[in-house]
Design brief:
- The protein is mainly alpha-helical and 245 residues long.
- Helix content is 82%, strand content 0%.
- It is built from 13 helices and no strands.
């Protein structure tokens, strides 16, 4: 994609599309800074072209890359709100993606009430439209935007997300849901199911082959081992997690 851009692209919409693909590829490879750079470029091009759909896709990708890198979310919030205003209120997959990203940003910033309302609206839209892919993606973020929900309710939502993602063959959503399931089991103090599900999660990360999920698997594994008093295992897993990070 970098070579394509260097060779020259005829139209601004093609430039934006290539930057979106470049951003997604960098994200999957764990290159957060390059991913942010690509999505920023795509957003600028989309803004200049007045293309609301491209701007929405750039905003969604930008938020995901910022979250992965742990950056401050002010820029992501502003871009998502700009894209949301440009796209309008009509129901669509893009609209749900914007709401999902916005809910996570708001939750991350501590604006829990607004985050919960935004998330609930997106979930209702996904179920109303029968968009199983969007629904799975939304449900996989249930822990982030749990609001007043109990951990048991969150666990049920994450399980629904994982099952849906497996049916759709979407390993990335399935990995995200599985990771948060593990964290929810730990939050409940249930280490046996957490340890059991960790093995399945590690197998899944080998299939997905994204460094971020491998980092998460070892990170959670180290935490479980530490809780159980297995210090040598905890240290070994923590070291592997650091290497992936």
């Amino acid at each position: 994609f970098q070579a394509a851009l260097a060779l020259g692209v005829k139209t601004s919409s093609q430039q934006a599309e290539i930057q979106l693909e470049r951003g997604a590829a960098c994200h999957s490879a764990g290159s957060w800074a390059e991913s942010v750079e690509a999505f920023t470029a795509a957003a600028e091009t989309a803004r200049e072209a007045g293309d609301a759909n491209l701007l929405a896709r750039a905003a969604i990708g930008f938020e995901d890359a910022c979250w992965g890198e742990g950056r401050p979310h002010r820029a992501a919030l502003e871009l998502l709100e700009e894209a949301s205003a440009a796209l309008g209120e009509s129901e669509s997959t893009l609209r749900m993606g914007l709401l999902s990203a916005l809910a996570r940003v708001l939750a991350y910033r501590g604006e829990t009430t607004r985050a919960a309302i935004t998330y609930a609206n997106a979930l209702e839209m996904a179920r109303r439209l029968g968009d199983r892919q969007a629904l799975a993606s939304l449900l996989a973020r249930a822990y982030w935007v749990r609001g007043p929900k109990t951990l048991e309710e969150v666990l049920a939502m994450l399980t629904e997300a994982r099952v849906l993602a497996a049916e759709l063959g979407d390993g990335e959503i399935e990995s995200e849901a599985r990771a948060w399931e593990l964290i929810t089991w730990m939050a409940l103090g249930e280490l046996d199911p957490a340890r059991r599900d960790l093995a399945s999660f590690r197998e899944l990360t080998h299939r997905v082959r994204q460094p971020f999920f491998s980092f998460v698997a070892e990170h959670i594994g180290a935490a479980i081992a530490l809780c159980e008093g297995h210090l040598e295992e905890a240290e070994a897993r923590a070291e592997r997690s650091r290497e992936f990070a």
